[in-house]
């Protein structure tokens, strides 16, 4: 949003129109950059997966993005909504399922959020904290079932759904706008959920060579994670939070990118995301060569 101050005066309709204009453009720019980096053409993509929670379009963002970059008309398009900050990992789980059934295909996965178009102000502490930490962002990754690419393979996925804690973290509608509910117990709830998935991953993996990467949901979240899982400092997550704020669903993928760019000696990266539901998701990513 430019200027960002304009959100204070925008109606619910104006905010959604801004999402409709800006989100497809931002996501298409990210996808095109990823394609350019990989050497692929948009016409070589067979599927596009998109997740978001900060706005709603029908047809979804995938339709607009595919048109902007010039994907084929027979490409498979899917939109994942309603998962909040945790959406990127369920999206990758869906990508893996598609590629397993279509091993010769290329798929793109985009997590895009415009928190500025989900702008709401009142004097509730959770609402005020949300205004302080949330930011706009987008991440694109490209996937294939057999081609090595950078050598990382999504091995296992786990999820945890805790509806008893649904009211602790979710969007609600207030005067036609999206208003974020954020309870002060969320850092502890998130840490408990991540710890449970961590222990379940431990049963699947025999390696001691692993690095943990979590959704950087906020400073207090990282503090609690370090207490519960002192085996890792979550440096990538901290760096993303410091540089970009909490971008919701793209954030864990930003941290993942930092993790692989550092050329880690670890053979496995364990990713964790969490958000509305209350839900938590994990992905064990393994270096294949």
From TrEMBL:
Report any one BP term from Gene Ontology: fatty acid biosynthetic process
A family per Pfam: Chal_sti_synt_C
Segments forming domain FAE: 24-142
Q: Report domain Chalcone/stilbene synthase C-terminal positions.
A: 178-258
Q: Name one GO cellular component term.
A: membrane
* Entry keywords, A to Z: Transferase
Q: Name one GO molecular function term.
A: acyltransferase activity, transferring groups other than amino-acyl groups
Task: Give the family per the record.
Answer: Belongs to the thiolase-like superfamily. Chalcone/stilbene synthases family.
Q: What is this protein called?
A: Alkylresorcinol/alkylpyrone synthase
- Supply the source organism's classification: Bacteria, Pseudomonadati, Verrucomicrobiota, Methylacidiphilae, Methylacidiphilales
């Amino acid at each position: 949003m430019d200027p960002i101050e304009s959100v204070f005066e925008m109606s619910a309709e104006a905010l959604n129109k801004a999402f409709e204009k800006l989100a497809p453009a931002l996501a298409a720019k990210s996808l095109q950059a990823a394609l350019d980096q990989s050497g692929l053409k948009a016409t070589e993509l067979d599927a596009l997966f998109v997740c978001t929670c900060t706005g709603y379009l029908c047809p979804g963002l995938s339709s607009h993005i595919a048109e902007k970059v010039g994907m084929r008309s027979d490409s498979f398009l899917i939109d994942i909504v309603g998962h909040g900050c945790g959406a990127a990992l369920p999206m990758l789980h869906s990508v893996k399922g598609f590629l397993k059934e279509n091993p010769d295909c290329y798929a793109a996965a985009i997590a895009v959020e415009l928190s500025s178009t989900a702008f709401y102000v009142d004097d509730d502490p959770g609402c005020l904290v949300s205004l302080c930490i949330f930011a706009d962002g987008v991440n694109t990754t490209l996937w294939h079932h057999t081609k090595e690419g950078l050598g990382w393979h999504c091995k296992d996925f786990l999820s945890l759904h805790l509806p008893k804690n649904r009211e602790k973290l979710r969007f609600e509608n207030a005067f036609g706008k999206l208003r974020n509910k954020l309870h002060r117990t969320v850092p502890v709830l998130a840490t408990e959920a991540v710890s449970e998935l961590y222990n379940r991953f431990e049963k699947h993996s025999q390696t001691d060579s692993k690095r943990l990467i979590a959704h950087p949901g906020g400073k207090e979240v990282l503090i609690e994670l370090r207490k519960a899982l002192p085996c890792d400092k979550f440096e990538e997550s901290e760096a993303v939070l410091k540089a970009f704020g909490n971008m919701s669903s793209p954030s864990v993928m930003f941290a993942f990118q930092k993790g692989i760019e550092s050329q880690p000696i670890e053979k496995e990266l364990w990713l964790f995301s969490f958000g509305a539901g209350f839900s938590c998701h994990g992905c064990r990513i393994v270096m294949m060569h």
